Description:
This protein is an alpha/beta fold. Helices cover 38% and strands 21% of the residues. The chain is built from seven helices and ten strands. Helix 1 links the parallel strand 3 and strand 4. The radius of gyration is 17 Å and the shape is globular.
Amino acid sequence: MQDLTNTMVTLKQGESDEPLVFIHPIGGNLFIYKALVLSLTTDSPIYGIQDFFDEGKFRDYETLADQARYYVQILFENLGSNCITLAGLSSGGTLAFEMARQCLEYGVKIKKVLLFDTWIKAPFDQKFKNYFEKIILRQMEKLQLTHLLKDHDTKVAWLNFLWKRMGLLLNYIPQPVMVPSVLFTAQEGVPEYTVDPSVQYARGKFVSSLQVIPVKGNHETIFDLEYLDELCCHVNMVLA
């Protein structure tokens, strides 16, 4: 993985002039995409946008649109006006969706937006808020990153930061983006998430076209190795 900026990194080299860019989910890192990226057969160069953490500080944003605007500026500075495919899991998909809207304002053509189990509106109730810390710590353990949170103050700061980022997501109101999109929907549920598929996946009215592809696993596991081959097959076909 090669840094282009503190925020944008090269995940895989490619010969095409139409890059694929993965946007981080809640947590800010790109580890969740590693196995998929290495397995893709596309000749597009693949980049990642991460929520960079430097010396205990994160960049602050007022809204999710502000965060997306910063990322779009970085894309434009590094990739110019190349035709880009944006992709993201969960909140990363929401950021990709908003980035697509803003890219059009920069004159950057968006080929597709790939949304991996990304909801039009994030589920939120008191139960979800109570489970949030548990969910994040479970994900950190799964990615073998818990060693980064051994210090109590760092752990508290990290969880507070993520809840603030979650606030950006919860308050985001999407606007139509006239780009073709592909939505990969997890076939299994997660107890902590109260998702009504008829509402949460209702993205068709916001895009020029929408292809929906059900995939194995749940919101947290669709990128797991046991489902990788099938997911990779779906993504390769979409990119082709």
